Amino acid sequence: MRATTPGAQVRGDVAALLPTYGRVNDKKALPDDRASEPGAADIRAEAARLGFSACGIARFDAAPQAGARLKRWLDDGMHGDMLWMVKKADRRTSPRDLWPQVQSVIMLGMSYAPSLDPLRHADQPAIGAVSVYAHGGDYHDVVKKRLKSLARWIVGEAPDSELKVFVDTAPVMEKPLAQAAGIGWQGKHTNVVSTQEGSWMFLGAVYTTLDLQPTGQHPDRCGSCDACQTACPTSAFPAPYRLDARRCISYLTIEHQGPIPHEFRRAIGNRIYGCDDCLAVCPWNKFARAAEEIAFAPRPALVRPSLADLAQLDDAAFRDVFAGSPVKRIGRERFVRNVAIALGNQGGDGAVAALTPLLQDASDVVREAAEWGLAECGPPLDSSAARP
Ligand code: B12
Ligand code: SF4
Ligand code: SF4
Fold this sequence. Notes:
Helices cover 36% and strands 11% of the residues. By secondary structure, the protein is of the alpha+beta class. The chain has one domain. The strands form three sheets. Strands 1-2-6-9-4-3 form a six-stranded antiparallel β-sheet, with helices on both faces. Strand 7 and strand 8 (192-193) form a beta hairpin. The longest helix is centred in the middle third of the chain and has 19 residues, at 139-157. The site of one iron/sulfur cluster (SF4) has 13 residues, from helix 10.
């Protein structure tokens, strides 16, 4: 039941590059053969069966303020060097700018609520803290597979509909659309919080030509709470509901290439991939049950990773350890850069021993981070170990 978007009219459009689920010239599209279209309750039931913990429906124009807010954020430069956000900004502002045929947006949430305290390594400087979302398999793969299954099921029920699925890889404002579809609200930490999953929910979207009944907006339940705002180690929130990505450890350790600005290195502590602090302190997490999705179960290598061991990873070992993990995306150079900074924050003989070989690393970025780390550790640099 898979077809491609008719290419001619939309060639060059991002949407044209994305697969469409649904008919183009399918015999089942004849009116007499049509099954009755599924309603919100049917779609939600199927989504639940596929492992989604939340599902809601919004009209394509249900988040009208998102475009202007995105523009302001970009104008203020808060995206840092995520230039892809600027390039695709006009497609991101409204679902119709991406796919003119879209009528309704089905927003899905999949829980990744941890069974262990996400901040349990905060006081263990020799252990690398990897964000919960990256403990298991890559959510892009897991969520996308389920979105495709949902899309195929909907097409089976409504054969003349067309659908496209998205998870984080296309210019889609997933968070405001999720709030508009009622599966949670954008908290002051800017992520979508749910009364059932707390802050631990991946988002995905299905755009469809079906005109579905919306399920209603979710009200903001942050009230006077400011736990996420005060928990942030780098003061990345200039105001509630606004995040300056340039200051966010998630951005600095994952998205940012090149050396990490010095002013944030101490605050990064032992965080070597992402950060969970603002999410972990959210009081709504007490209602979250640990995720059942087996693909998100923590890999043994990431339950208690030693910084000294991670510093030794060469390219092949890095690819091996992180095969199928979101961590693989940043590559060995950025990852070992992060490890070197965390080792500098750890200090002591073990850190010096792990950092010293990195002074001879082939990567400038890794060598610079190792030099910084050794300087932070205190003992003078061993000039004989430095690269000529
Ligand atoms: C770019 C990006 C980042 C950037 C920027 C984050 C950000 N807050 O924008 C960085 C690298 C920092 C990042 C970090 C993380 N990310 Co991220 N990221 C994205 C991405 C690709 C785009 C987000 C975006 O459009 N940002 C632009 C800004 C302008 O949009 P916004 O945050 O919605 O901004 C709104 C508010 O500022 C609000 N607003 C402004 N003023 C006001 C005033 C009032 C009164 C109100 C009510 C609102 C309001 O309106 C704006 C528009 O809606 C999405 C996937 C997607 N396609 O949506 C994932 C996504 C948001 N990330 C996700 C995750 C899991 C994370 C991390 C938790 C990962 C980690 N542990 O390290 C952290 C969380 C950090 C944080 N507190 O946000 C999930 C969030 C799931 C959820 N439940 O919401 C997403 C949705 C991916 C997914 N498919 O699951 N991310
Ligand atoms: S992820 Fe960490 S650094 Fe980024 S805003 Fe949240 S607490 Fe701050
Ligand atoms: S920590 Fe408090 S302010 Fe932040 S998102 Fe959760 S409820 Fe809202």
